[in-house]
Amino acid sequence: MTMRIGISKGGLQGAELIDACSDIAGIELVVADTQDELEERALDCEALMLNSARYSARLAERLASGASPVRWLQFASAGYETVLEHGLSDHVLLTNGGSAWGPTVAEHAMALILGLLRAVPLMERERLRARWDASHVIPHLRSLEGMKVGIVGAGDIGRGIAARLRPFGAEVIGVVRSPRPLEHVDHVCILDQICSVLPELDILVLALPLNDETRGMANASWFHIMKPSSLLINVGRGGLIDQSALIDALRNNAIGGAGLDVAIDEPLCPSSPLWLQDNVILTPHIAALGGRSLDRLIELCKENIMRFRDGLPLRNRVLVPSQRNGSVRAVDL
């Protein structure tokens, strides 16, 4: 019997995925070109492959109805905040694309860190003025060697950043919800105790999902106790930061700079003061793109399709709150 799997055209390389999976026996892949078609696929497919943004309230309602045969959702994205918003039936498995994007996002986080430490924004402004003045730049130059870097989030992205920091000689502190050993991490800090380490950090990296617990977690109380020279890097979700508090902290030199790949509202409003900050690097939510990211995503989806067909455990399983059986540990923190 053939198993039908619906693929949303938005966020997944539908044609490439269908081509890659053409040799898998017992599977029929059906592309949904529109949101309406995707929601219709919930009535005739056993699995759906989509981006978090495509998971709507209507789709959630259809999955919860007895008429839907869907038993598995594969998100292309690492984030899954729409599932937290709309809910997910207990009988439906959720997997994400975190392992596909992790290496590239980790590289991008390193680019933001090094760009700020090596005063790239300042030198770019000097270039536009055709000004070659080392004496003006040198006081702003810093090195990652010996710095303390805190990474909030221990999913694929957080672990990837930690691994890339080690060759630079940085001291890495992993911030997680519950204590456990972490590779490439020198020390582990419990999230509830983060305020005890914030004053020591030279760099704070946010690499975790957005949910009710993490929304606005980086706020004025954090910035007040961070070093005036410290850097904030966000490759998670824009909502992790109280953006108004961040702007105030940057304006008042409460922290030394920020590298942001995400914003609360995207695209970032042209009138946002963040555009005018000299100590900020902004990138338009592209940290995951480039290199082999899409190849890894297709490989992950293909492997999970075969695992789903064969009744094997799926890779990148995400346990949403209603499915954790009382556990308080999220998969990415």
From TrEMBL:
GO terms for molecular function: glyoxylate reductase (NADPH) activity; hydroxypyruvate reductase [NAD(P)H] activity; NAD binding. Belongs to the D-isomer specific 2-hydroxyacid dehydrogenase family. It comes from the Bacteria. Residues 110-287 form the D-isomer specific 2-hydroxyacid dehydrogenase NAD-binding domain. The keyword Oxidoreductase applies. PROSITE patterns: D_2_HYDROXYACID_DH_3. Coiled coil: none annotated. It holds the Pfam family 2-Hacid_dh_C. One of its GO terms (cellular component) is cytosol. Gene3D superfamilies: NAD(P)-binding Rossmann-like Domain. This is D-2-hydroxyacid dehydrogenase. Keywords: NAD, Oxidoreductase. The lineage of its organism: Bacteria, Pseudomonadati, Pseudomonadota, Alphaproteobacteria, Acetobacterales. Residues 27-318 form the D-isomer specific 2-hydroxyacid dehydrogenase catalytic domain. It comes from Gluconacetobacter aggeris.
